[in-house]
Amino acid sequence: MWGRTAFYQSSGAYGFRDQLQDAGNMSLLWPDLTRRQILLHAAHQFEEGDVLHWWHDQPVERGVRTRFADDLLWLPFVTLNYLESTGDTSVLDERAPFLKAEVLAAGQDENYLKPEISSQSASVYEHCRRAIERSLTNGAHGLPLMGTGDWNDGMNRVGREGRGESVWMGFFLYQILGDFIPLAERRGDREIASRCTQYRASLHAALNEAGWDGKWYRRAYYDDGTPLGTHTADECQIDGLAQAWAVLSGAASPERAAQAMAEVEARLITEEPGIVRLLTPPFVNTQHDPGYIKGYVAGVRENGGQYTHAACWVVMAMAKLGRRDRAAELLKRLSPALHTRDAEHLETYKVEPYVIAADVYGVEPHLGRGGWTWYTGSAGWAWRVAVESVLGLRLSQGHTLVIKPCVPDDWPGFEMDYKHPESGGIYHIQVRSSGQGMETVLAVTLDGLPAKVLEGSAQLPISAGDHEVIVTMGRP
Questions:
Q1: pLDDT tens digits, residue range 145-165?
Q2: What are phi and psi of 409, to 5 degrees?
Q3: Which helix (H) or strand (E) element contains residue 99?
Q4: Of 3.40.50.720, 3.30.70.20, 2.60.420.10, 2.40.10.10, which CATH number belongs to 396-474?
């Protein structure tokens, strides 16, 4: 967040999607940090709605304008998450300027430039609206255009010619629209609410028709219409990113969600050395050119290794499906402590035992070796998945503490302390088993008095002072 640099990359640059995710994942502890980051990134959006992929602010602000399709969508994604957690709708009316610069020419993938501050400014809501409007694209299969990459920067030539489509971004956009449409309606912005509603319905159909491969979801379509992430391919038959977000977005039916994650377990998760691969098999000889991902050695980084950022979303998806056994087990595999538990594993892993690694390599002779530590958005996501998805602690609208654990039946319980950043209230939370498993919340007390249980979750009001919370888990 503050240095934006480490041993693997000495950069110092702000990444549009990178620091937004870092700040968004810390909103449970530092909502003011999230709020400031939203305003900073809104001010790095061009008048046309696209954004600087990354920028340096010293000595003179310069950055790179690209055709990456997902960057701009992280602004509404993080803003909508912030609203759900804090209830602070005032951020939507904060104003931020746009940037102005020459648009990319036909065939130009990117341009490193010094933008001007535009005379135009708008509310954060309008910045989010403009990002969403620019993203309502359609390719031949009814899926969003991929440009020169979506979340996976290494797939920068899948849609370079302007016709390639991203299945993953379809899921990402589907979720964002589901949260944005009610907000637009509450603000009386009926025109965009109507457009988004119609687009979301057609997107849902496209994802489950052109996006479905028979047992799992495809990853993308190349410019020439060839599917990527399909069982008929020799390489990259399945990509875990699309399967996780099919679940997280709610776009997959319960049956397809379970089927897709079963394929993730069978094809992408290995027991030893305990990794969650991003995709398999790696790119080596494919006749198509997905981009610079193919330049990585097989099994290294995004090319068939564990890319921990995406592995966190696999854990989150397992938790959303109620897979309490697998969510906790896979979370444990992301911990560097597991990979350095004895001398033999340490010799394989080779990196620090106390920080999250962005990569764990997935093919011999580098199988199980860690890489790219310290400077990774995986750290914030791993923390958030642990606290929110597995231990089940989150904030709702800034005034309610929700506790809904997703832990295995053989856990006897756990304890955690939480300090609410605004009220200063400190909650000493004990989660206990009734002796009949950990399936759902049966009862909760707050300072010795019964508290509200709603749909299997504890619902506690936020207030100042010290509080004792006891949550009893069991079978319903």
A1: 999 999 999 999 999 999 999
A2: -65, -25
A3: strand 95-100
A4: 2.60.420.10
